[in-house]
Amino acid sequence: MSTRAPEQDPAESGHGVRIARIAGVPVYLAPSWFLIAGVIIAIVATPYFPDRVGTGIAIGAIQALLLLFSVLVHEAAHAMTALLFHMPVIRIVANLWGGHTSFEAVRSTPGRIAAISAAGPAANALLAVVAWLLLLGASGDRTSAVLTGLVIINGSLAVLNVLPGMPLDGGQIVESLVWKATGDRNKGSIVAGWAGRVLTVLLVVWFFVRPLAQGERIGFGSIWVLVIGSVLWSGATASIRRGRALSSVGRLRIADVAEPVVVLPPQTSLGEAAAHPDLVLTTDERGQPVLLLLEGAAHSGLDPATPLISVVTRLPDECLVPAEPDDSLERVLATMGSLGTGLVVLTRDGHPWALTSGDRIEAAFGRN
């Protein structure tokens, strides 16, 4: 066993400390996990104050580690199921709200996504049953306490995550069912998002509003319900927005976001280029039309006789995307995402005919 911190690639930074690998998938412990660990220790240890502080902290730490173990079992089940369907798994992260498994949903189907989503709660349910069976024959207070903790934690994780609303695993299953029934995954995202909103309201009413109406004291647990509710509401809202946005993408065509361009010789004067009604491109030393005259360059105080080649900005070669007016935006959006740029030059038979930008696409979304 080594205590040396594992080295991380630049691509792995930002996810926390890498603590393990499961079937080659890196597992990270996010800094936010330590916050929830502290909260658990505080809640568990409080009844032991002030006489048995050490005991309370030790029991709280054990409960926090049991939760971490249970969350990793949950996420590992997601990862293993995704790998079973030959979907590359990028990482597993344990964080403040439990955990998250990132994978590339290639060749995805409603059945596969539902199976991946159900695997996590199923693993927790199985672990809870195993712990309960072991508890029946357990001897010793410490062993019983650990097994009892596993039963409670995994039973709770299984029940909570299977609830039918985004962003929970049950919401992913709802999305898959609607996707299967309608053939439209985006519609599934919207339905699952609204289900998540309804679920959030019901949870807050039952665990916060109802006790308050009955005159019960509002403690830390009740406040925590509101915090969890806000997270669930945010996740549900994101699902609705994502479904609507992707539906808009499906309706939009290249012609809806394209702005005409003209390719002028590099030695064209700035004055002549600025007078052209279309956006202006010119070619670089290789003959590639990837040099763009930015709007406003003509009003920068430069001599109108300045060669166009002197005042252009270079775009990545990959920004040249073959596209027809009736094509969808999928390839354009994928290019923008992969390059991290908001500009794409649209070509036909190798010749630029238009340009589009992230701003134009966002404006088109607004109109739809």
Automatic annotation (TrEMBL):
GO terms for cellular component: membrane. InterPro entries: Peptidase_M50. It is a multi-pass membrane protein. It is found in: Membrane. Signal peptide: none annotated. GO terms for molecular function: metal ion binding; metallopeptidase activity. Belongs to the peptidase M50B family. This is Zn-dependent protease (Includes SpoIVFB). The chain crosses the membrane at residues 27-49, 55-73, 80-98, 113-135, 147-168, 188-209, 218-236. One of its GO terms (biological process) is proteolysis. Its cofactor is Zn(2+). Keywords: Hydrolase, Membrane, Metal-binding, Metalloprotease, Protease, Transmembrane, Transmembrane helix, Zinc. Residues 64-138, 144-191 form the Peptidase M50 domain.
